[in-house]
Design brief:
403 residues, alpha/beta, ten-stranded mixed β-sheet, three-stranded antiparallel β-sheet, 12 helices, 31% helix, globular
């Protein structure tokens, strides 16, 4: 999805310099760095370093504690060929601009992943002849920037091309084998059923090739979604798709599942506010999901009053917010509390709320249902029946406080 990237112009992710490399090599110009914990790469929000009024990553790091960024996007050259470029126009081989951004991030103790593909433009999987040549192109990117992580963003229109998806999945498998420890995510479209027909075909291609990335992430937006409840429902459905495709149990599927959201107003006019991000974050952590990210940091700031809420923008969210509000959810997912910008006020004592109807073991509850149990109110995170509120911290009930 992410039509915004096509109409506004997306900067790319990353390519490679030599097929068959056997280890990650840090490019000297970008600053050698040791890998971060994989949880940071899993939490890295997308940043376009060449387009959509790129924000200063150092300022974001200082304000939020964020350490990792998902740079977007690497594509095939618009003029044709099987070499990596940023946004189809800036060759990776001669790049100094993105390299400078990476050096700035690494100098502050952070790191980057690079995302390939996205919506629009010609992808290397479409332009290259086979998985080996596709992998060789991406290896140029890994080698130049000394990458420890890479993201395959496989969506329209590329994922409708069987040969292109075979090349991309095959390349991902080769890179995983040739770069020990490389964190690999695969991102695709989300639907109410988890993902659509082409997304499911992509998963079947991965199964056929024996390829398992760190995670398969879906983007539950631009598809008739309405807030966090619809997104968590899609994540539950996608878990079922992963189980049925790969034969995993529920926990294993969640351990290989990821969420990639869109902050603020989506391309189709859906709205996802800070509260929605918190709800999905709770779901992701409760289910031990592998990834929580969003599109994008370029949009993680409030629009001017004339724009706020009226349109989808590549440079602001169209919802009321402070700068980098949404980045703080990525920091929380990584397990780090963002630094406080203002003192936390002492809470005013409150009178306990009145109790909701008593929980019943025989009643089936849907997401959002409220009950009382043990002198506390509880809200259902998803469909549940005969699961006692508070019995497990990973269970279906969220404690709403004493009543």
């Amino acid at each position: 999805m992410r039509r915004l990237r096509a109409c506004l112009g997306a900067a790319a992710a990353v390519g490679l310099a030599a097929a068959g490399a056997t280890a990650l090599v840090a490019g000297s110009a970008s600053g050698a760095t040791s890998a971060l914990d994989n949880r940071w790469y899993a939490a890295a929000p997308y940043l376009m370093p060449l387009d959509n009024d790129p924000p200063d990553p150092a300022a974001i790091m200082d304000a939020t504690g964020l350490k990792a960024f998902q740079l977007a996007f690497v594509l095939a050259p618009s003029s044709g060929g099987c070499t990596p470029t940023w946004d189809g126009t800036a060759p990776v081989g001669s790049d100094t601009t993105v390299q400078s951004v990476i050096s700035t991030i690494r100098a502050k103790g952070g790191d980057v992943s690079v995302s390939i593909g996205g919506y629009g433009g010609t992808k290397l999987g479409q332009a290259c002849a086979d998985p080996a040549s596709t992998a060789a192109a991406y290896q140029q990117v890994i080698t130049k920037y000394g990458l420890h992580a890479i993201d395959f963003d496989l969506e329209e229109p590329e994922y409708e091309n069987t040969a292109a998806i075979r090349n991309e999945i095959g390349a991902a498998k080769i890179l995983q084998q040739n770069n020990p420890g490389l964190y690999v995510s695969v991102t695709t479209a989300g639907t109410a059923d988890g993902t659509g027909w082409f997304g499911k075909q992509m998963l079947l291609e991965a199964k056929a090739q024996g390829f398992t990335p760190n995670n398969f992430s879906i983007m539950p937006f631009d598809g008739g979604f309405n807030g966090a409840v619809s997104q968590t429902a899609a994540l539950t459905k996608f878990n079922g798709v992963l189980r049925s495709t790969f034969g995993w149990d529920e926990a294993t599927a969640y351990a290989h599942e990821g969420f990639s959201g869109m902050n603020g107003r989506s391309d189709t006019g859906e709205y996802f506010a800070q509260a929605d991000f918190q709800t999905v974050l709770d779901y992701a952590t409760d289910h031990h999901m592998d990834r929580f990210t969003f599109w994008s940091l370029n949009r993680d700031r409030q629009c001017t009053p004339a724009d706020n809420g009226g349109r989808t923008s590549g440079t602001c969210s169209s919802v009321a917010q402070n700068a980098w509000d949404f980045a703080k959810y990525s920091v929380k997912f990584a397990g780090v509390t963002p630094p406080a910008t203002t003192p936390t006020p002492t809470p005013t004592p409150t009178t306990p709320a009145s109790c909701e109807p008593a929980w019943s073991a025989t009643t089936a509850y849907t997401a959002g249902a409220e009950v009382s149990y043990g002198k506390h109110n509880w809200k259902a995170k998803w469909w549940t029946q005969n699961e006692t509120p508070g019995a497990s911290q990973w269970g279906p009930w969220q404690d709403e406080g004493a009543c």
